[in-house]
Amino acid sequence: MRRGGFSGRRWQATLAAILSLSAALSLSGCVVAVGNTSPASPSPVAPNPKLAGMQYLYGSAEADAISRQAWTALVAYVGDRVKRPVADSVVLAKGATLEAPRFLSCAGKRPAAVFDVDETVLLNLGFEQDDLTGRADRAFPERWRAWEASDGQAVLPTPGAAAALADLRAMGVAVIFNTNRDSADGAARALDAAGLGPAVHGDTLFVRPDGGTGDDKDTRRWRIAERYCVVAMGGDQLGDFSGLFDRPGGVAERRARADGPRIAALWGRGWFVFPNPVYGKALKGAVDDIFPADRRWHPTGEQ
Amino acid sequence: MRRGGFSGRRWQATLAAILSLSAALSLSGCVVAVGNTSPASPSPVAPNPKLAGMQYLYGSAEADAISRQAWTALVAYVGDRVKRPVADSVVLAKGATLEAPRFLSCAGKRPAAVFDVDETVLLNLGFEQDDLTGRADRAFPERWRAWEASDGQAVLPTPGAAAALADLRAMGVAVIFNTNRDSADGAARALDAAGLGPAVHGDTLFVRPDGGTGDDKDTRRWRIAERYCVVAMGGDQLGDFSGLFDRPGGVAERRARADGPRIAALWGRGWFVFPNPVYGKALKGAVDDIFPADRRWHPTGEQ
Predict the structure, then answer these.
(1) Over the Cα atoms of chain A, what is R_g?
(2) ipTM above 0.90, yes or no
(3) Which of B32, B37, B54, B62 to mutate to test the interface with A (most CBs of A within 10 A)?
(4) Of A243, A219, A235, which Cα lies nearest the Cα of A267?
């Protein structure tokens, strides 16, 4: 469905007008009345570039429905795997590639499902609202550390998550969290607050200091898959499934990795993705990176 | 997974500085050197508020995977309905409510799946790239009319759509499009260009002039459901499933409609949603509408 609404170009045109007027002032040596910039008149408010993503993820019925739909598919898939076990887990083995994937074996292991935490099983409402409205003079790392150390109450489960995790546990499937948070205590508090626990550090909860370099979760995934038959994984970033997606490469190359002939069939069949247009590796690229060169159009008479 | 990156607040602080400087200039009667605003120095570029959504939907591996996952679930669900038919369609009957849903009957009808077009089965790459970079002096309606009238080549199917629609047709399920485009010829051209056709106006393609008021698709849905047993619907906006979602109400109320006890179970079980954080009714609300009042947090020492 299409419709008009807020135009990004309109805002950019407004800004361009402000800037060229400022430039003209500095060149002319004359001060003239500057529309919309006196303290008494309303200033044009820059739309926060994160607002639209937050409207979508935290406010919309559409993102709510996509989250529920993903949880429904995940529970159905795991239910089928419990009834009809297969030999392989859905964790790529060390040395595997996206072109020639090999998966770790399930032989003799208890079934588990492995999840990222933030914007996968819980929504960080308190942190994100503060990010939009809070003081601009604190950098992300300090702010996020404070959030991890908080009481964890200002969260909600992603729509459908609480019932889905309960269903998995009722099937005898271990629910395990693999997060890049630094604080295991903080993660467990937030998971409990969202009604998603228990999460026990070193058993069903693994955090960044437990292994791996940077954001890479493979080391912890392999550790989990030594003990468990991982029948499903869920995340909002493709690094929640394999570090191979985050190897160097451009925007189009990364998207092509998700489309690969041996990978595409895994989405919704063992690997389950939750929407997050607010932050992360999905929000990269200039216009020429995002839009294929052979799919350009402009109205007649425009370039 | 979390990480820092672009701060919306940093941009807003930059803009505030520009504006207060302009204000100071106009009050002081003096022209001073204005940082970053002379034509020779690089201007601060306002992040287009639509860019992040476009990065996500058109560029990211994550949105690609979510689209594939939704198509996989849809084809599996329809396959099951074809093997094990049920009495009811997934189209709400006239007079039904979200609290007491009643569905139109399937008795004696051939199975069909009904889809929205834009950002559901195809990605409007040409239009959206132009929207980011094109001239700012044409309004949306004129621009969109030109796009509908274009050759339709600057599109791609949503990831997984082409194979999924082929699978549905191979099962004997009619693939029907219900779009709010005005031009049936233009819609058919774009669907063909994306490899998603055929779409025959009045048979498998219905456009805005075919009935309904404004964006409401119910009239056309009911017309389709008179002839067909609609076993699944797909859309990027909840109006693609029922006009009841778009009745008056705030952001939280609309989200609660998707969560309703009789509705929540339909997501992924007959109703399938595709991601679109670029435009539409999902992108509404001020901060206080998006974030629940009982889930607020700020670092210690801040309000």
Answers:
(1) 23
(2) no
(3) B62
(4) A235
Average pLDDT over residues A231-250: 97
In B, minimum Cα distance to A239 occurs at B1
CB pairs A-B closer than 8 Å: 451
With bands split at pLDDT 50, 70 and 90, how would you rate the model's confidence at A48?
A: confident
* Minimum mean pLDDT range among A33-47, A81-95, B253-267: A33-47
Full-prediction pTM beyond 0.95? no
Are B270 and B128 in contact by the 8 Å Cβ rule? The answer is: no
Nearest chain A Cα to B15, which residue?
A46
Q: Which two tokens stand for residue A33?
A: 């009345």
* Partner A contacted by B40 (CB < 8 A): no
Please check whether residue A176 is in contact with residue A205, taking contact to mean a CB–CB distance below 8 angstroms: yes
| Cβ of residue B296 closer than 8 Å to a chain A Cβ | yes
Nearest CA in chain B to A158: B259
Give the position of tokens 């004696």. Answer: B108
Give the three-state DSSP class for A293: helix
Chain B contact present for A248, CB below 8 A: no
Mean pLDDT for the stretch of residues B21-40? 35
Distance CA B242, CA A193 (A): 34
Contact residues for A182 (Cβ-Cβ < 8 A; gap 6+): A145, A148, A207, A208, A209
Contact B285, A59 (CB under 8 A): yes
Chain length of chain A: 303
β A103-105/A228-235 pair status:
unpaired
Indicate if the pLDDT at residue B12 is higher than 60.
Answer: no
d(CA A85, CA A135): 52
Asked, as a colleague might, if the bond just before B47 is cis with ω within 30 of 0, I would say no
Q: Do A136 and B13 touch (CB under 8 A)?
A: yes
Rounded-to-integer distance, Cα B201 and Cα A209, Å? 59
Residue A295 corresponds to which tokens in the numbers above? Answer: 């799919």
Sign of CA dihedral B273, B277, B283, B288: positive
Question: How far is it, in rounded angstroms, from Cα A121 to Cα A161?
Answer: 6
DSSP notation for B195-251 = T-----BTTTEE-GGGS-STT--HHHHHHHHHHEEEEEEEESSGGGT-GGGGSS--H
Would you say how long chain B is, in residues? 303
Over residues B52-91, the pLDDT tens digits come to 999 999 999 999 999 999 999 999 999 999 999 999 999 9
Query: In chain A, where do the E strands start and end?
Result: 88-92, 103-105, 110-115, 122-123, 156-157, 174-178, 205-206, 228-235, 271-273
